[in-house]
Specification:
heterodimer; A: 124 residues; alpha+beta; Glutaredoxin; 5-stranded mixed sheet; B: 597 residues; alpha/beta; Rossmann fold; Ubiquitin-like (UB roll); 5 domains; 4-stranded mixed sheet
Chain lengths: 124, 597
Amino acid sequence: MTQMKIRNLDDLRKLRESSRDLSSARSGGGTVVIVGMGTCGIAAGAREILSEVMAELARRNIGDVAVQTTGCIGMCQDEPLLDVIRGGQRVTYGRVKPEDVPNIIAEHVVNGRVVEKLAIGRAD
Amino acid sequence: MPIYRSHILVCGGTGCVSSGARDVTECLRNTIRDRGLSDEVLVVPTGCHGMCEMGPILVVYPEGTFYCRVQKTDVAEIVEEHIYKGRPVQRLMYSGSEEMPFIPHYKEIPFYGKQHRIALANCGYINPDNIEEYIARGGYEALGKALSSMTTAQVIDEVKTSGLRGRGGGGFPTGLKWSFCASAKGDKKYVICNADEGDPGAFMDRSILEGDPHSIIEGMMLGAYAMGADEGYIYCRAEYPLAIQRLKTAMAQAEGYGLLGENIMDSGFSFTLHIKEGAGAFVCGEETALMASIEGRRGMPRPRPPFPANSGLWGCPTNINNVETWANVPQIIRNGGAWYASMGTEKSKGTKVFALTGKIKHTGLVEVPMGITLREIIFDIGGGILDDKKFKAVQIGGPSGGCLTEDHLDTPVSYESLTALGAIMGSGGLVVMDETTCMVDVAKFFLEFTQKESCGKCVPCREGTKHMLLLLEKITEGKGTMEDLDTLEGLAHMVKDMSLCGLGQTAPNPVLTTLRYFRDEYVAHIRDQKCPAGACAALLEYRIIQEACKKCGICARNCPVKCIPGDRNSGYLIETDRCIRCGTCFEKCPFGAIEKK
């Protein structure tokens, strides 16, 4: 197997950067995306939403966003629910469809602009 | 590189492996695959988390949920409930006090709250079999920095500034030691990592080797660069197979990236590293005996000088440091000596890893800043005494250390303070004892160990420890005299002053400190023929409390030497002179009608 050799500090830092995702899920602190995965959420299609979130993050090569799941919070009629916590503000999106996910990630997660037409609640 | 939304860290330290961590890991991987989550969830085997008694330990990120004592049968629930549905499994969380029945997060558990992890920074956080994870956490940057922008003298100065002292027990300033070897004449020099950890109850070096092997390799290379050495040995006992296996993997991976071998990072610096597996003799932790063992000779110490810095391995200048010392070096070079020196006390800088064992609630590994009190370590971090019994003493520094009492609990821990009390920092073993422990018996236990491990080269150690042990046996059997006590103390000072190496020089410490702080217990064994803690079998007497006895005869039927004559009408009596004090009757009696005194 031919393997990359580290010849100087720059090589090492490049490898460090590309290895960052290996432990980024363990560091936390950044933006958090939470998908409601209670029975109600799963029945309304939350699994597809979660898969789409992961796929979109991979397409955009975003490694420093923590993706979590959570149980039922009581707003079953508005499932699937997706929360974004960014800069201390938590926004809840309701009745999310897989095709909404790239938009939420591009607008809110990356650029910090809340997608108003899908937002159903917020907490500071 | 794929992105995983969740990382599940499974502890793969020896403690957790023996409580079933490997089965749990395999089961976890299978369940995740069956649930279709393999692309989203990564299972990472790590090194020791320190809370060994709660193992197998599992930490789920990004939430950082801490699960204890996870068994195979719990895996399906964790995956289904926590990973899939986002509902953490409460019943597997660490259970604290009544006000906080379930503590979900790592950082909130009191055991971790007061710790400050430098040598253990990566242990339990990265996969030790994956060099990229070490690099992702800044690994090998200290080496890159030193090789590209620091002179050898600057590296030594940085270590001097840090105030780092030998963590193997001696406490000699590391930077000063390095400067001796650096200025020694010779074309060929060696660096050695002393991983011959042999104290009963100590496992900090093993955990670092298992959990973060690259930090040792990087630390040794920094030392080698600073002192002009090009070859190194890690002397590790063969009883640590997991540590050796992880070291070998780490060395192969570092070689793969060109971080170990010829012309590292095009700097002209080359370094070859070997692992020497030792057969487990305690004396081989002594540096001259250790080098003899590497050379293929019998592991025996020799007089110093010449010191290894001038004439060590195969007569070449050699520097030996302990595992924990080496593990601190990369971070000192990366963050600067002043950063390290900002922690600890005036003369003892930085942090120290302690292994907590004995009658303590949270057996395990902790890293704390120097200057912390023993009370904080034992009660705040360690959770106090098992079964809420009364604290009696703590043996610090293993068989070479000493027993300290309740009165010393508020002493700030440093090399100087412990030595002043008659104990030593040692490698950092803390054996906690409660009121049921007999201090004479403890002294005997540790002396049995050092006496067996004495290499026999010098007379004071070979003969002295043997006769001290005979005296202790005599006392615990109730045959001692007050004169024996003086002989014991005299012998102890003689062995301490006259032995050739550290083994003999420190072997009497447990006897001397127990004589100093628990003399009344020795006297009770001799004068009153009693063991106050009820631990020395020969001094116990079993007796049937006739008022409480129901004359059932269970004791008589179970007695292995048939020394409880009687019948169900007239009752039973123990014939003390034939009794072997096995305690069977005491355990079997359903009415608590047998007492031991």
